[in-house]
Amino acid sequence: MPVTFGELSTLTTPLSVVRLCALLFSCLTFSLASFSSQSNASTPENIEYGITFKRFCMVTWCLFFVLTFLVMLIHFIQFHNLLPLSWKNLTATVAALGALMTFSASFAFTWTLVNHQSGTTDPKSIAAAVGSYLTSLAYSEELHLIRSQSDGQQRGYMATVPGLLKVLQVFGGCVALVLINSIQNDQKWRTYVSFITYSVCLLPTVGTVLVMVLDCAARSPVPFDRLLASFSLLGVIMYTINTVVCFSQALEINKDGQKVVIMSETVMSCITLLAYTVDLAFSVKLLCDRN
After folding, report:
1. What residues does the MARVEL domain cover (predicted)?
2. Contact present, 73 and 81 (Cβ < 8 Å)
3. Cα separation of 234 and 226, whole Å?
4. Structural contact between residues 238 and 269, judged by C-beta atoms closer than 8 angstroms
5. Mind listing the pLDDT tens digit for each residue in 141-196?
6. How far apart are CA 211 and CA 205, in angstroms?
7. What is the pTM of this model?
8. How far apart are CA 112 and CA 212, in angstroms?
């Protein structure tokens, strides 16, 4: 089947405009960040944290730049109708995860500028931080437009509250994995508990998102709503244990750099626990309504 290009007017719709803004701001951000000069940090520990978080930021900005570019390209050449997936779920997932990940990258990059640099901050770094926040704002507006579509344009599952909660769970698990890999902890068992928690909970959630994006929920050999409820219950149990472990670890660490990182991990663990709890409530309510 020949490829059919869309009209140029498709690039002037509100949804296309905010995607173009996200492309522009993300390109500007990682370009400025890659060429910005960073002053020496005050301690070797701060240097290590600064390098780790800058890599996380660069990967985030570049990844979502590529994803957004592909979304716009596929939509313009009208190729999405030929793909064996749910286009509405895919675009909602990219927008929601892009808003969360770029915002966390903005926060991490700003933190490295404030705490891990000495002397005068490079103007390119400040501009990169501003560009990252604008990128997050563009993705948030894209998600808002997707969720506020008219009734004639039915939203996908990932644009609903349960779908967005799963995106939040994926986001929390990914950021927490980055944080624990940057912590130098003498008590390795706590790191293992956190790593197992994030991995065990993240894999089923990522699988659920992929099932929704690939539109395979109807092919599940078991009742899919009960499967989702069991995943949410598993997440609530494991993240409750992990949150207690994170709190106890935060109380014992005295180094400023590590304390900030472990407190950030604790906050992410609490947010993800809340997401699993609310998701479990939605799943139980759905099961009760069907019974």
Report:
1. 10-151, 157-288
2. no
3. 12
4. no
5. 999 999 987 554 567 889 999 999 999 999 999 999 888 877 765 556 777 888 88
6. 10
7. 0.89
8. 36
